[in-house]
Amino acid sequence: MKECDETVTHKNKRFTLRISDELANKLEKEAQRLGVSKNALSLFILEKELDNEQKKK
């Protein structure tokens, strides 16, 4: 499985996510379907996951 590095930028902070090519392609297709950037979709997903983790505690 090949890996892909996705760079996400938020409030002048840059994060690098290492994901599989398959997941990167799914992310890109979903972002296109929703009419948003991969960056915005990645941040939305990460924020939801962090909120879910916080609620579990």
UniProtKB/TrEMBL annotation:
SUPFAM superfamilies: Ribbon-helix-helix (SSF47598). It comes from Ligilactobacillus salivarius. GO terms for biological process: regulation of DNA-templated transcription. InterPro entries: Arc_rbn_hlx_hlx, Ribbon_hlx_hlx, Uncharacterised_HicB. This is Ribbon-helix-helix protein, CopG family. The lineage of its organism: Bacteria, Bacillati, Bacillota, Bacilli, Lactobacillales. It comes from the Bacteria.
